[in-house]
Structures are given as structure tokens and as C-alpha cells.
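Hey all, sorry for the wall of text incoming. These are the two entities for the joint prediction.
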Amino acid sequence: MERQSVPQTTIQRLPAYLRCLLQAQEQRMPVVNSVELAEMCGTNAAQVRKDLSYLGELGTRGIGYDVKALIAHISSVLGITERRRAAVIGYGRFGGALLGYSGFAERGFEIVAVVDADPAKVGTLVQTPSGEIAVSAIDDLERVMQEAGVEIAILATPASVTQGMADRLVAAGVRAILNLAPVRLVVPEGIAVRQVCLSTDLQVLSFHLAQNAQHGPQGADEQE
Amino acid sequence: MERQSVPQTTIQRLPAYLRCLLQAQEQRMPVVNSVELAEMCGTNAAQVRKDLSYLGELGTRGIGYDVKALIAHISSVLGITERRRAAVIGYGRFGGALLGYSGFAERGFEIVAVVDADPAKVGTLVQTPSGEIAVSAIDDLERVMQEAGVEIAILATPASVTQGMADRLVAAGVRAILNLAPVRLVVPEGIAVRQVCLSTDLQVLSFHLAQNAQHGPQGADEQE
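and here's what came out:
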């Protein structure tokens, strides 16, 4: 199958293309060529053409890509033509900040459950971009995941309990985890995990600062 | 110079090696070999040997790496033997969550300034892992960055003002930016930027969910 052979690095660039295409749509551009799209995304045209070639026969030589059709196609490849149901596990400072983040809803994700271990928080109503939800107890994790039809769990728990939470989530049928705790999760094959680690990002920045101090500045832009 | 030729992908794995080595040190392991280190970090031994070979002649064949020496060496390559001074720009929900995150201090980063545009927040004392700081006004951005000796700015501002903030930070001498706003920054050459985009991570997870639904589960673990 076409899609199975899309390289990881291409998949990781698709969200950026989608974002730029939505921007182009807002600016009422019916068609973009690879040079324009590359410029909007901060990459080069050859890369754009190569990445999009993995998705099939798209675009017309000498004209470009139909913006609306390409948005629909990338959304379909990313599996976000329907809304994805996500849960936030751990309603601490990070979990709370996530709930207020309107970017999720705009990109096709809906927070349908919030779970916390603190009895004082359970039952509290929290505001999300798509409405109010009551915080559920961690003891009810499995039931809540199943009843709310959660596909993606966002782990914002203390590091020490994160692996245990991941195990319970996987057992409850959750197939994708975004982990914000600074812990490397071990999960069975077929479960998708993305690790967000701000300390790692800071250390990579620090590397570039150290390099610049030693060798003078170099290009060190590593967005996306 | 040796260090200038370290590939980006290796640099991005160094923080994980460092984390695993610190773990090994806690467990009082004086020496680790590449197989053990690979297992702790979830990679393979050949990768570990290759990555570490870029840093110079390290380790002893048949024995392994001296844990303490390798920690010191990687810390030095990452430029975190001294504490790095960072500022949080934007004291909203995300900015606030960042301030409470003890991981930064543990990894060698100190939040030395917090800046916000809201006059009601300016002057408020906020608790950080390394003590209390008063929120500064955005009008004083340049002065605050210089007086506090900020090397890394963490941008947690609304998307619409983020590029303008980045421009001012660069003009004020900040050489590294961690951007949490869903906006691609344009910066001069030599300025290091890391982009954190949780929506992108969710979309990559969604891709795997869509793949699994179509083709059955595959390995989709992409940590670090």
C-alpha cells in the first residue's frame, strides 16, 4: 500500500504543510506551487515535491497543487478528517495549561476526559475549548477511557507514575500516547508514542550556544 | 574541529544518553557498555557506539564507558557544565506551568526572568524552582534580558505576537529560543530555534491510528 511506505520524516512534516495550506486557504489562494509552499513552511521546493509524491499523484506540473484538494488529502492521510478523541491524564499545572490550549480543537482534537489522582480535584468542572468536563478519578481510568471512546491519551502525570499509567491506558484500549513526563515509556508493539521533553530541547539549544561561543555562529535553525 | 561535525540527529540523542547515564550513576554503576546504555535509552548498541564516536575517543573496548567521565564529557559538549540562564516570555497558563517544572533546574537551566504584557501581572512575585522572581513588563524586555544575562528565551506568548517578540529578543542579544507558540519563527542565521508543537505531535499520532485502522497495528514507537 502507498501509505505504508511514507517515511517517518515525511509524516513529521505533513502537519506543517497542512498548517501552511490552511493559511493559503485563508488568503484565498486556490493553487500553490511547491516553491510557494516551501517558502511558507521554511523548507525547499524539492523537499515539498518529494514529500508530497509519497502521498500519490498530486498537483499538476507547471501549475501546482489545488489547495482545497491537498488539505483534504493530507487530512485524510493524517486521519484527522473526523475529530480524534483525546484525554488528559493528570490535572496539574501542565495538564491545566493543555486544557486551555485552543490549538488542539483547531487541529481536529477534542479533549473528552480529564483524569486525576487527587480526590480534591475529582468532580471539579474544567473548561475546555469544546465545553465543560468533570475531572474523573484515576481509579475509574479504564471505564472513563472506554465510555468516552478515548483514542489518544496525553500523559501529564508525575514521572514516577507515568509508566504505570501508560500500562493501564494500553490495557484499556488506548492506542496512542503523547507523553509530557520526562520518562521513556515502554509500550507493546503497535502503540504509538510521542515524547515531548522540553529539557531535551533546552539541551540542544545549549549545545548550539556552546558551539557558537567556541567556533562563532553557524546556522542552527531546527524548526520542525 | 571534532565537535563541529557532530550530526544533528546525534546531538538530539545526547540528552537521552545523559539522562540514562545519570540514572546509571544513581544506581552506582561505575561503567556501562554500549549494550546496557542502548537498553536504558531504547536504542541499539551500534547506534550508541556510532553517536559517541563523534565525541572523540571514549570508552575502552571490551569494558565500556566510565559513567562519571562520560557524563562530564556529554555535559561539556552540550554546554551545560555551567548553568544556563533562561527567561520565560509570556506568563499565561503555559508560561506558569513551565515555571513550576523542576526538570529545568535538574538539567542545568535556571529561569532568571519572567516577562508579560499584562500590567496586572507585572511586579507579581512568582515561585520558580530556584526562588522567587518578579514579573517584568514587556516594555522592559531588552533591559531585562541584558541585566539578567539571559541566553535562552522560552516563548509562551500568543501566536500573533510571537514573531515580534523573537525579533526583539534577538536584537537584545538572546541567541537561543524555545518556541511554544504554533508559529514558525524567522530568525537570522546563527540563532538557534527549537519549535515545540503539541498539535503536530497529536497529528503524527493520529496518522498511526489511521494506519492501524487500515492495515493493522505496526510498530510506531518514535520516542526521541
